[in-house]
Structure formats: structure tokens, C-alpha cells
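Quick one:
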Amino acid sequence: MKKETIQKRTSISNDLMHYIYKHIDTDINLDELAETFSISKFHMHKIFKETFGRNIYETIKSIRLQKASTLLLTNSSSTISNISLSCGYSSQTSFMRAFKKRFSMTPKEWRKGGDKRYSQTLLISSPYASSSTASFENITPTFVKMPVMHAYYIRHTAYEKNIRSTWQKLQVWLLSSDIKEYTLLSLFHDNPAVTPLVECQHVACVSVKEELNDSDKNTLPQLYISEGVYAKFDLEGKRGDILKFINWIYHEWLPKSDYVTTIRPPYAIYRKHHHLSEDERFDMSFYLPVTL
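Output:
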């Protein structure tokens, strides 16, 4: 397949994903979605699955349940019915059925400490995260408004499995293109605090300041990271601390704060990257989208 065709299909898939995030609290009609993007429904499903490794139905359900799992903790005064509606479910019954199938517990049990037990099992599944002794209680975020960021990227599914090679490929592209000024980022489409690590979509990104030639531009797909207000956490550590940190963010810091997160994916900007350094240590800022 020609690179131009790959670029076009990837662009459509990314636009579809952006649309899903933006309208996740509504009833997303796939016939209307295909019409919006002027493609057939069959073609829409095909290119989305090829890009993200799972179909649109699975993606919508996953994003809704990830959002619900967080709102149940941060919106303690909201009823389960209201939360189900805000996540795009037409009935509380269907929401509760889907939630229990995903997390093996009811929303009520999740609110009563089930969230921490569930997330702990995910941490244990990672030999790096389970061995982390890092503590984050003294970390205080600052709040910033970030602009839209344009990035080139390589998508990877499953944390820790061959993930280093993904970042090395991005590094080879930078070296081959002789790019000197750039910023490395991770975009977290899935929340590893509530999603099995083998299913998590990890997006290795690089934002460049210089103008590239057409050949370099067309080598990797491109995306835009949303502007907005973010809680910015500065953090240094070793490989394995990041998953434990994200777990702390969603199950400790966020429920105790006066903020709720939005449907925009969080991201990290690296000053030093653990997958590209010999000592496997990192220095980064983690950006969590927040609102009152």
C-alpha cells in the first residue's frame, strides 16, 4: 500500500477516535458517523480496526467505562444513574451490566474500595510496577493551560511487551531525519490504572519544531494533542514508577482533590526517557486534564 494511502487511512482513524472522545457522553450512531466522514460503514470499521487493533464498538465501550470508573470516585455526590447517563448509557441497567462484566464488581462495590483492589491486581501483573517503592504523597501539581500540540507517532498495544523497541524506532526516525529539536511525549488513550496492561494503547509521540521535508513527514502518521487545562505533575524515577504513579493519581489524588478529569487523554512530556536511557530512569511532566 502506498504511504499516501496509509497516511490518509490513519488520519481518518485518528479523526474518528477524536470524535468518539468528544461525543462519548452521547448516543454515537455509527451510520451517522460514517456519513459525517463520507465513508462507508464497512470501510470505517475496517480502517479503524487496522489502526487501533480493536473495533469501534469495543473502543466506545472501553472509553465509557474508563470514564465511569473515574467519575464514580470523583463525583461522590452523583448517583449511579446520573453517571451512567453522563457516560452515554441510555439506561442504568445496561450500564451496571457492562460495568460488572468489565470490572467483576458493581459500581457500588467499586465506590467502596473495589477500585483499589482491582487496580492493585493490574500493578501486580507488571514486574516493574510491583517492585516500585516510590512514594508520591509529597507531589503537588501546578495548573496550566496547554496549547494544541502536533506530533508524529507510533502506536503500541500492551505495556512493557516490546515497548522499548517502539521508542527506539521513533529514535531511529529522529536520527535518520537529522532532527535536532524535538520533544518526546506519551499519549495515554487507555488508563492503565483500570485497563489490563495487555490491552492498553500506548502512543509514543514526538513533537518537532523544525520544518520537515515531504519524505520525513510521510514516514510516520500524525496526530494533534488537545489543548486545555491540565494538572501538571513533575516527576523523576525509574521504570515501573510510572504505572504506580498513574494508579496513585486516579485512586488517591483525584478523589481527594476538588477536580474531575475530562475525557481528553492525559499525556507525559519527557526530559529524560526511561526506555531510551541506559539506567532506565526518567524525568517527566505528567499532564492530567481537569475541570471543576
